[in-house]
Design a protein that fits this description.
The structure is a single chain. The protein is globular and about 95 Å long. Strands 13, 14, 15, 16, 17, 18 and 19 form a 7-stranded mixed β-sheet that branches. A hairpin with a 5-residue loop joins strand 6 and strand 7. The N and C termini lie close together (10 Å). The protein has 16 helices and 25 strands. The protein has 4 domains: 49 residues, no CATH class; 237 residues, GROEL, domain 1; 93 residues, GROEL, domain 2; 151 residues, GroEL (3-Layer(bba) Sandwich). The structure holds adenosine-5'-triphosphate and magnesium ion. Magnesium ion binds next to loops.
Amino acid sequence: MSCFSRCHIGFVARKIYIVNGVLLLLALRGLLDLSSLPTQAGGVPVLVLKEGASRSRGREAQHSNITAAKVVAESIKSAFGPKGMDKLLVDNFGDITVTSDGRTILDEMDIQHPAAKMLVEVAKTQDNEAGDGTTSAVIVAGELLGRAEALIDKNLHPTVIIDGYRQASEKALEVLEKIALPFDFLKSAEFLKKTAVTSMASKLVAEYKEYLSDIVVKALLEVMEKQSDGSYRVDVDDVKVEKKTGESLGDTKLVNGIVVDKEIVHSGMPKRVENAKIALIDASLENDKPEFDSKINIEDPVNIAAFLKQEEDMLCDMVEKISATGANVVICQKGIDDMVQHFLAKKGISAIRRAKKSDMEKLARAIGGKIISNLSDLSSKDLGSVALVEERKIGDDKMTFIEGCKNPKAITILIRGGTERLNNEAERSMHDALCVIRDLIQEPKVIAGGSAIEMELAISLKKHAQTVSGREQLAIMAFAEALESIAITLSENAGLDPIDILSELRSRHEKGETWTGIDVNSGIVQDMTKVGVYEPIVVKRQIIKSAYEAAALILKIDDVIASSKNKMPPAPPGGMGGMGGYPGAGEY
Ligand SMILES: Nc1ncnc2c1ncn2[C@@H]1O[C@H](COP(=O)(O)OP(=O)(O)OP(=O)(O)O)[C@@H](O)[C@H]1O
Ligand SMILES: [Mg+2]
């Protein structure tokens, strides 16, 4: 990468900064003709960028960007598909993550190269929009860029390649819509389950994929809501996912209600409350402490007792206030003073403290209660009611189960893996599965996986390319080959011969076998609808869109101007340590 050049102008030397492509001329004395800037008029050099900044342009910039993006795609390839491997990632604090989830791997990798970061964005978009298919999207984007580089070497201009890729992506989306298989999930949940199984087949939890898929499908069918136009909508956040180490994934349960990972605060409080009236309080049930250091001098011992009595009375008032509303359970987002706990217990009221904000919101919806942030506002109509609140021992810990909610859409999946890391990966896999089921409920159309769909799209694109005159044809062919890389990667990761598999897949798709793919479990090229490997159309549509957009964005760049690293002042002794400068792109 070359350092930004110094240009010379005849009369005065001053620094000029480029900000968002605009030249800012700083403290220039006299009039200066901008057009004269790049010319070497001799004389004193003018610094155009801040010291330490760097710039690369043209072919060099393209090569650097494409290589970085390809490296990112390459790095997650081995985690793709049911036979993919997992990655062990260690963060700055030494925390360990074991995963094969594309988005998580890229998030944890802490990537710095600006173009490579764009591929991380692809994974994020894919995850937010479709919930699954993040690895596929990054692999296809990387392949598109790799093939574009070969075309650039053959003197194809990047804009021609982008145009060809755009045409190819539009055509692929058109074919995808045409061949997708619609179904009615109200008649049979078979496709929903098979799709959830496919999504979990490539994860650490694959051993329990059938059992966990049943749970996920059941949970989402409970929380889906019919719209006025007859369609259904689902919010995956309506399904609460809790995890507790112990037992095994096969003991994961679906709870009709909300499970809060907190125990009842006082041993004297009832651990089981039927027909519970719950007060949701977002205020501390303690005496306010002043924000500044303060001191009270009490000279008469009689006054000490009066002072303590007054403090106790204030806490007692809080309990009276709660009790007067008829509440028999308190769920508090903040702390509860020991004295308040004691008084609550005496009145037979159970309480949970420091509940998560997200739990409070879910509870408010589930039990039909209102979160009160000022205790004096609490009244009986703010209480929510449920059939049962019970503290249960799960593993070594206690959790509180709130069951029989007013709103039947209150559902919790309680994951029970043997280790914390397994639980974390199970939660991520569960999230992917929940998202694919949501995608299907909202748009009930599936396609067959195992690279069947990618091969079918590739064949259609190759046929389409024949009808396109001009250089875009080469780019359309390259797009088709990039899609074929899914079949190659699946086979390679399963230890199969990718060349044999690819040629068989090509010839069978040529013969019109739309859903032929590679079943990596048996190693046989066959009709994937018979194997039952299905995926939602939403996931594949998003893969094509995000891979194309990322490739186009990166190919369009021919100039990279990176400012220098900001130096932070050294950390004060004993302080938390400087955060270090933001890693300048000039350092990648
Ligand atoms: N039995 C199978 N045989 C062949 N391919 C399969 C089988 N089961 C699933 N697949 C394929 O595995 C791929 C999914 O793999 P994986 O879940 O690792 O990647 P992803 O969904 O793209 O990314 P991520 O799950 O990390 O967001 C899909 O293309 C799917 O069709
Ligand atoms: Mg997946």
